[in-house]
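Model the whole thing, not chain by chain.
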Amino acid sequence: MAYAIEAHELAKRFKGGVVALDGVSFAVEPGTVFGLLGPNGAGKTTVVRILTTILGADSGWAQVLGHDVGHDPDLVRRLFGLAGQYAAVDENLTGRENLVMVGRLNHLTRRDAGVRAFELLEEFELVDAADRTLKTYSGGMRRRIDLAAALVTRPGVLFLDEPTTGLDPQSRAGLWAVIENLVGAGTTVLLTTQYLEEADRLASRVAVVDHGRVISQGTPAELKAALGATVLAVGLHDAATAERAERALAPLSDKSPHLSGASVELPVDGGPKVAMEALRVLDQLGIEPVTFVLREPSLDDVFLALTGRSAEQDAAPTSAGLPAPERAGRNGEARR
Amino acid sequence: MSAPAPVVREPAEAGRAPGIGARLGWMFSDTLVLTRRNLIKYVRIPESLFFSSVQPVMFVLLFRYVFGGAIRTPGVSYVNYLIPGIFVQTMAFGAVNTSIGLAEDLQKGIIERFRALPMARSSVLAARTLADLLRNVVVAVLIAAVGFAVGFRIQTNVLAFLAGVGLILVFAYALSWGFAVIGLFAPNSETAQVMSFPVLFPLTFASSAFVPVQSMPSWLRGFANHQPVSVVVDAARALMVGGPTTSLVWQSVAWSVGIVLVLAPLAVHRYRLST
């Protein structure tokens, strides 16, 4: 079948030899949400900039709705909408003026641009603020007007670069609902995020990106399945006890345990059975857990298993040939 | 938040390349849309209003009433000598807005957004310089009003005076392209401003704008006599208060055209590279 978005072996090196992308490939089926998940500096934004024709790739190719972004940038620019990590709308203009400007720059007539701006202001509940400059908007309102601006031409493909970074939970939930509605109506969405919960909630497929490479790809369920059915999380009194507990629990699973501070997390397949075994082992050593939880794995666990680091706390430098120190060993890594 | 109801569609334009006529039409319309956006900003930001209007008035008052008494200008009253110079100095200073505006747009990411829109590439720079030209027209009216209020009188005729103002506007437009280059190299708007002034100060003050070049030390006179600001000031002064004009006017037009020919391609090149 024809993909809505396709990237093949995209590579990009910036001045000074910093490798931003080192062969990124993925394909997005029409009408789905595809999540690019990874920490800051992993290369997610660079992928979006290449797909949206802002930046040229050094090698590899990419298509949007069947059109090559490098060969046909003018055409491709008419096919997608882009909402950025930093809402790139003009704060000295009013909400309405921003939408009309984007409409006019998409070569709508003045009348059509005005009508479309009004529709979007209504849909995004910004009618009351329509004629105030964006300086007076809250963070959530700015993201909404930014997303509205990306939808002026009713694009079939929407790129959202960290659409909810820095938003409060309520605004985030609101934006999620909007995105789900768009997908329900047939829009294809490529979303970058460092929030594992966000990819889990919205995306039907996820590519985990780290140091300019896709290190894993699949449905959120597949990624979790590869990790183990459940995660056993045990909290102890102190770090020394936690180390003893880690050594004792390690044989219970074929996955590696993660130690951080006074807690140990172990991906397991057996669920309750392993939990009973774990309690027995700890009891024999005279270790009394403070907390003892069996939970569903999150995408954060996936990232931790794949890279040895947590995605949410990490701001990895993307340096050529310089693996981040955390890669050396996973046991020294603080979880939270 | 209510749910937007998008309609998936291939835009009507998709699939066929627009003709050259349509492209030129869009380039023109994109430039006007962005020019309007740039001008709105000038009106809504108080600091920019201050630099556009209050600062030139202060300079007129400062030189007319504070320094003016100490400056000898043979054959012409100082206020008549000063006002053509003030025109040029103010508009040259105004050209810094081009570098500040561009650096700010780059920094805030709005130019990234423009690059992802199906608009003409060239319209960002064209709109920036056009907006600054229009802004300068307003500033010119203001300076003329203040100039007349403090005693400036046209010694030639109104047409020649207007030609002088036009000559300065063309020069300021050319300078805008130079400052566009600075703005595209600067990491942010503050730096763009800081980078602009070392260029601007020698050009405007080591010139015939405020004092006769003969009063300067000989080592400075060579530069001051031949640099473009002096040429444009002398040409505008000749048109406004009298003197031989032809050669000076041609020289200043040549400077303006030369600056655009050299620096506009450089700015466009730099704009293409800056992402």
